[in-house]
Amino acid sequence: MGKPINLFSLKSDIIEKFKEKLVINKKIRDKLYSKNLEEVSRCPICEGSQFNPVLSLDITEYIQCKECTHVFVNKRPTLKVFKEFYSTNETYQKTYTDKKNAMLRVEQVAMPKLKWAIREFQREYERQPNSILDVGAGSGHFIHACRKMGYRANGIEISKTGCQFAKDIFDVELINQDILQCLEFQEKYDLITFWGVIEHYNYPIMLLRRATSLLNKKGMIIVEVPRWNCLSTAVQQLFSDSIIRHLDPLGHLHVFTDSSLATAFEKCNLNIVGAWYFGMDCYELILQLSNFFNAKELLKQDITREKLVPYLQEKADMVKFSDEIVLSGKLSR
Fold this sequence. Notes:
Layout: H1 7-10, H2 12-16, H3 18-32, E1 37-39, E2 51-56, E3 61-65, E4 71-73, E5 75-77, H4 79-88, H5 90-93, H6 102-125, E6 132-135, H7 141-148, E7 153-156, H8 160-170, E8 189-195, H9 204-213, E9 215-226, H10 231-238, E10 254-255, H11 258-267, E11 270-278, H12 281-292, H13 297-300, H14 302-318, E12 324-331
Parallel strand pairs: 6-7, 6-8, 8-9
Antiparallel strand pairs: 1-5, 2-3, 3-4, 4-10, 9-12, 11-12
Helix pairs in contact: 6-7, 10-12, 12-14
């Protein structure tokens, strides 16, 4: 439970330019969802066909499967459209190609995730992983952390901007391909990670099954996804006109429940061996309140940054009311 992080340093540009970010995101969303949408008639996780509407937005709607409780957008751009968007759009990748915060993101985001993953692997197999593959490697922060700690690691990423950033800042060569089409893998891996990836893909089960085909028999897959049952969801249901993360159909086609993520693992023959709950819920709450009341000074107060948000987030994490979950799993025998 929990993950200490200085969000106000990492997100300083977003905090200062929140209204501008809202306008930019809306323009990108409107363009992406303007035509050639496909309707989702089956749950992308369990293939159920009975749903409840849970959040209506101006361009689409989130619905929830009555069987596995998975939450997803009911109308979405095609896989071809999304792949083109993620591979070429520089604006969406901008948060992760910030040179100023590159090393801060390594230390506060990538490194804690790596250390947790290694602990999980050691607890299960009583040894270190010999090889790591990070799928959707973004701008290379996690691969840089792996290599800094002495692990042999590769990353695959379709964003050209992300791959260039990884090369320029970390001297990391990412594989600039789609994992489902990539034929360059010469080995199987001990540890395969998806840090905030499968929720962006039209068919998350396909990604997980591809990963299992690349996993050693005594290997582990780790998946981080956004959670539906959390404080951020409640806050954004109240402030649905000012969403730039979490319930954002620009990136999150899926928002998982613990049940739906467990169902995905089971369908891919993965036994769950560990879980980690943490989130940005209280940051989201303060951000939305400051925007609604036009009170930026609320975000600048030391008591907000150093006491209020960390304290409340710790409490949310401890009762599993946080907006992120990470599951570790191994192949079923």
